Each structure stands twice: as structure tokens, then as C-alpha cells.
Amino acid sequence: MEEFRVPIHLDNINLYITEAQMQFYLNGISPAFRVRDILNEGKVSKDFLIYYEKCIVYNLIWDLAKKYPRSSKMYWDDNFQEIRITYPKNGMVFKALKKHGLSPSTL
Predict the structure, then answer these.
(1) Is 60 exceeded by the pLDDT of residue 41?
(2) Is pLDDT of 78 > 60?
(3) How many other β-carbons are positioned within 10 Å of the β-carbon of residue 8?
(4) Those residues with Cβ within 8 angstroms of residue 88's Cβ, 6 or more apart along the chain or in another chain
(5) Domain ranges of the chain
(6) Measured on CA atoms in the order 32, 36, 97, 5, is the torsion positive or negative?
(7) Which of 2, 36, 51, 77 could make an SS bond with 84 (beta carbons 3.0 to 4.6 A apart)?
């Protein structure tokens, strides 16, 4: 599982997207589109920014959960057919998201 956790740092505050997450995004776009087209100033698509924020929120929670297993809980929600993450409202995950200006409702 760790082989899918190789980070690509796109900022200077230790938030990241993994190589696997970037590849997943790239799999859904035209082969003529290159990574530099996503990252060049003025060419970042709104769709990519939304995806990127979801990834950095997920990775932040993942890293905290790995270090502090009781900080959050990830589970499959049968009703909505998606992964859900729960954590205490004023716990470390909530505070970390707030510190980085990330919305807890991003996921």
C-alpha cells in the first residue's frame, strides 16, 4: 500500500498529492494534455484544483490517522456508495484542516 503514497509536493506547506492520485487524474484526460499544462501558471483547470484539494485533505487526514489512529475513522457508507471520514469536531483533524484553510466538507 505504501507504494501508492509517494508524495508530489506542489506547495511549500507540506500538503501534497500522491503520484498515484495524479496518475488517476491524468488517466481521465486527453493523452495530448501534459502535466505541465496543469501546472503552468494560468493553465490550472478548476476541475484539477477541486480534485487537488480533495486529495490534500484526504492525505492530511490519512497521515494524521496513521500517526494517531484514534484521530479519525474511515469507512464505506453503503447508503451513499462512497468512502466517509469522521472525526471529532474540535479534534486534531478539524484543527489541522482549519490551520491550512481547508474546508472540512471538501470530501
Answers:
(1) no
(2) yes
(3) 13
(4) 94
(5) 2-99
(6) positive
(7) 77
> Could you tell me if 58 and 50 are in contact, meaning their C-beta atoms sit under 8 angstroms apart?
no
C-alpha 30, offset from chain centre? 22
Return the pLDDT at 4: 75
- Can you tell me the distance from the alpha carbon of 6 to that of 18, in angstroms, rounded to the nearest whole number? 5
Q: How far apart are CA 22 and CA 24, in angstroms?
A: 5
**Amino acid in position 79:** N
Spell out the residues 6+ positions from residue 4 whose beta carbon is closer than 8 angstroms to its own: 18, 19, 20
User: Average pLDDT in the 76-90 region?
Assistant: 91
Which residue do the cell numbers 499544462 mark?
A: 37
Provide DSSP, 17-68.
EEHHHHHHHHHTS-TT--HHHHHSTT---HHHHHHHHHHHHHHHHHHHHHHS
Note if the pTM is more than 0.85.
no
